[in-house]
């Protein structure tokens, strides 16, 4: 951590080391305060009995289910992020002139999203990018408004949700 910049380094499921940096003054202060807590875990809490407990993935997923009232997990958020990142990247690309060019663009997009998520491209494409996004890119039907994800995140999310809902079978809507 350096003033307003925080760097998180952690090992992901595949055993690969992942590094994510961000700049946010308030969050940097919160993380700094967490580091001052005794113990080895950066993210921890004090339970009802006054014991310090590390925060693990089960805690995060339990909190999400309680807060959202539905069966959501961290994987659902990673899938949403991966799908939105892929949709935004592909919406920025011109319609492919050939099937080979389209495959090349999709491969580069999936690799870029995999790098952000800390996965292999194969896992990223299979588990974290909705196939309708890739299909729509190939068909030239991906909404160009999705390209706004970096500048207007809420609008891009709304566009993606509408797009995905339109791809659902009528009885599932």
What's the layout of helices and strands?
Layout: E1 5-11, E2 17-23, H1 25-35, E3 44-46, E4 52-54, H2 57-68, H3 74-91, H4 99-117, H5 121-128, H6 131-139, H7 153-166
Antiparallel strand pairs: 1-2, 3-4
SSE string, helices as H and strands as E: EEHEEHHHHHH
Number of domains: 2
Mean pLDDT equals 86
Total strands: the figure is: 4
Individual helix count: 7
What would CATH call the architecture of the largest domain?
Orthogonal Bundle
Largest beta-sheet characterization = 2 strands, antiparallel
- Tell me the β content: 5-15%
Please give the order of strands in the largest beta sheet: 1-2
Give start-end ranges of low-pLDDT stretches: none
Alpha-carbon distance between the termini?
45 Å
Instruction: State the share of residues found in helices, binned by percent.
Output: 40-55%
CATH class of the largest domain: Mainly Alpha
Structural class determined from secondary elements: mainly alpha
CATH topology of the largest domain: Topoisomerase I, Chain A, domain 4
- Gyration radius over CA: 19 Å
Shape estimate: elongated
């Amino acid at each position: 951590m350096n003033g307003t910049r925080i760097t998180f380094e952690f090992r992901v499921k595949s055993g690969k080391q992942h590094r994510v940096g961000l700049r946010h003054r308030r969050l940097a202060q919160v993380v700094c305060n967490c580091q001052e807590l005794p113990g080895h875990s950066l993210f921890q809490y004090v339970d009802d009995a006054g014991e310090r407990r590390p925060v693990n993935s089960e805690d995060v997923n339990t909190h999400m289910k309680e807060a959202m009232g539905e069966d959501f997990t961290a994987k659902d958020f990673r899938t949403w992020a991966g799908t939105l990142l892929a949709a935004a990247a592909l919406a920025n690309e011109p319609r492919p002139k050939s099937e080979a060019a389209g495959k090349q663009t999709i491969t580069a997009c999936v690799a870029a999203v995999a790098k952000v998520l800390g996965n292999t491209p194969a896992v990223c494409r299979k588990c974290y990018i909705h196939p309708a996004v890739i299909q729509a890119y190939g068909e030239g039907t991906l909404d160009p408004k999705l390209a706004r994800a970096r500048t207007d995140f809420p609008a891009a999310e709304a566009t993606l949700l509408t797009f995905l809902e339109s791809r659902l079978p009528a009885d599932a809507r």
